[in-house]
């Protein structure tokens, strides 16, 4: 009897141990299956960032990983996409766009500003050098159902602008200066341009007479445009962020009652601001400047059948400065009206700042440097 009880106890103990072992193995198998499923799910959804980063590491010295749309932004084009919707709204509000206006947008990027412009204006004309950006903007516009977009692929500096009412742009900073000068010279006049510039460049446009950063750019803009500061833009508002902050400016062209050649006006400023802290007498007595002006003067006399002066041209030129009482003045201390007065007085005497017999004067390009504001 005792043997039967012992055998029964042993069997019961063995059965209990087997049941516990089976439960543990079942739980372990369930955990393994769950872990495998979770891992597969992560890989299919792209959550495994380490693996993805290794597969998509395609940046080089010429390109940068850019936006959430997985589009590579080219450094050579200065591509930084404005992602802050608040800044986009400020640009649109400052432009005061009407439903009858045609808006010219320089550098559409992926269309963040373009999409906001399309429903509030008659037409948007956009110019971009990158065909991928143009393709992206077209897709977004078709998806949103807009048909008032006109696109041009090319360099905005080399492209002839069509007629437009308002210009908006998040500019590549390297084309800021030539684009501003191109807009100033554009005819017919437009209503306004709301543009984003590098902070240092914008501050030069806003500078006052006598400021350290007062320059040819300042005079050029203030003669032809009224400049209004709209807002500051932190570098974190871009994707990828640039190394500098930005400023949005509004340029309103002035209705001028004088007719001057913009090329000639700009060439005068190039001469004056080549050494902006020296007196105008010291600048204009340089042989390179005198030789260029004398050559243009003789061409002017020949074309207009005028007898040239029979005395020293240097005296003839410097006497003009004395007559305007500007010979001892420095460019950094003169405003746009002083330079305009000087140009008109030179022109009265037949002295011009470009070769009127040959607009593509190679000599002018070799004498005058693009560098300005040298101390």
UniProtKB/TrEMBL annotation:
Q: Which UniProt keywords apply?
A: Methyltransferase, RNA-binding, rRNA processing, S-adenosyl-L-methionine, Transferase
Domain of life where this protein originates? Eukaryota
Q: Which residues form the Ribosomal RNA adenine methylase transferase N-terminal domain?
A: 87-255
Molecular function GO labels = RNA binding; rRNA (adenine-N6,N6-)-dimethyltransferase activity
Establish whether keyword RNA-binding is in the entry: yes
Enzyme Commission designation: 2.1.1.-
Q: Quote the Pfam families the UniProt record gives.
A: RrnaAD
Residues given in the record as S-adenosyl-L-methionine binding sites:
80, 82, 107, 128, 155, 170
* Matching CDD domains: AdoMet_MTases
- What is the similarity comment for this entry? Belongs to the class I-like SAM-binding methyltransferase superfamily. rRNA adenine N(6)-methyltransferase family.
What this chain does, per the entry, is described as: Specifically dimethylates two adjacent adenosines in the loop of a conserved hairpin near the 3'-end of 18S rRNA in the 40S particle. Involved in the pre-rRNA processing steps leading to small-subunit rRNA production independently of its RNA-modifying catalytic activity. Part of the small subunit (SSU) processome, first precursor of the small eukaryotic ribosomal subunit.
Q: Which NCBIfam families match?
A: ksgA
Q: How does it assemble?
A: Part of the small subunit (SSU) processome, composed of more than 70 proteins and the RNA chaperone small nucleolar RNA (snoRNA) U3.
Q: What's the protein called, per UniProt?
A: rRNA adenine N(6)-methyltransferase
